[in-house]
Design brief:
Distance between the termini: 45 Å
Order of helices and strands: HEHHEEHEEEE
Shape: globular
Strand order of the largest sheet: 1-4-5-6-7-2-3
Strand content: 35-45%
């Protein structure tokens, strides 16, 4: 048993040393900047996403976030298309602006405060200018009417068309409880 453990350990050490001398097909060799990165998949995308140099969509989304902090569902409604599709932490919605505004109004009525702290955001547009999205990474803190406080880390991916929000996807990461 001791001999097989020793052989196994020596085999592992030898293969580890050999691996150090052979470049990995995954990622770049940090010492050789001319090395080509090999990806395991081929992209089949018609979009050809680019950073959007026009900051208007970022401004719309960030103003909606500020309206959220103010529990102002009316301002949010001004930036929402006639129909909207959303997926908020796995809860799907597809309906009218009036319906989503009522849901917002009901939710805001349960809150005492809401704070949004954005860490980063990016606006992208596809090559033919037909799809525009703003992605936002932020933390959200709130206190409900009963005094219960909570918080989440959030990633939003929001699609806009003609300056109006048409799709709102939100993914939450709840902070761990101590």
């Amino acid at each position: 048993m001791k001999t097989s453990s020793t052989l196994l350990l020596l085999g592992f050490a030898a293969s580890s040393l050999a691996a150090c001398n052979n470049p990995s097909p995954i990622g770049e060799n940090n010492n050789d900047k001319s090395a080509k990165t090999i990806l395991p998949y081929t992209k089949n995308s018609k979009f050809d996403w680019q950073f959007n140099p026009d900051k208007k969509n970022e401004a719309i989304v960030l103003n909606v976030f500020k309206a959220m902090e103010n529990l102002d569902h009316e301002t949010i409604g001004k930036h929402t298309a006639d129909s909207i599709e959303s997926n908020i932490d796995g809860v799907k919605f597809n309906g009218t602006r009036a319906q989503i505004m009522q849901l917002n109004k009901n939710f805001f009525a349960t809150l005492k405060t809401l704070k949004v702290v954005p860490q980063d955001w990016r606006s992208v547009v596809n090559k033919d200018q037909t799809d525009e999205w703003v992605s936002v990474w932020f933390s959200q803190y709130w206190e409900d009417k009963e005094g219960k406080k909570d918080s989440v880390k959030v990633f939003n991916d929001i699609k806009l068309a003609d300056g109006k929000i048409t799709v709102w996807n939100e993914y939450l990461q709840h902070f761990s409880k101590p």
